[in-house]
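Now for one protein, fold included:
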Amino acid sequence: MINTIVVVGRLTKDPVIRYTPKSGAAVCTFTLAVNRDFTNKDGEREADFINIVAWKKTGENAANFLKKGSLVGIHGRLQTRNYEGDNGRRVYVAEVIAERIQYFDKREVQGGQAAGTFPSDNDAPREQAYTNNYADVGVPIEISEADLPF
């Protein structure tokens, strides 16, 4: 199955970082405002507000380098969960679990780091052999008349 989400938008407020009580893993949450591709009847663009969750090193980097208004790209997966609310009713939540965060603002981010991709816990070097499956496309083929079936 495929579960991949890519969104680009601006943070609506500064990210919030917390640490899990048992393992101490960092978890950073923020909301991204993502403009729709079309305008409403008044000619204005509406936005969707998407909850983002970044774990461990990705979350720590987001908390350290992002702030309200930062333009970022998020590559991750959609996750749903539910819980019982204070009033006893079931609450359903959909959020994007960020696997990679790309910083798009031109200015430098906090701490003197240049803009770019924040490393994630999944960023292990990957080597892939390149195979050009189309190397022979457009190359003339020699066929003799004896090879033709008619």
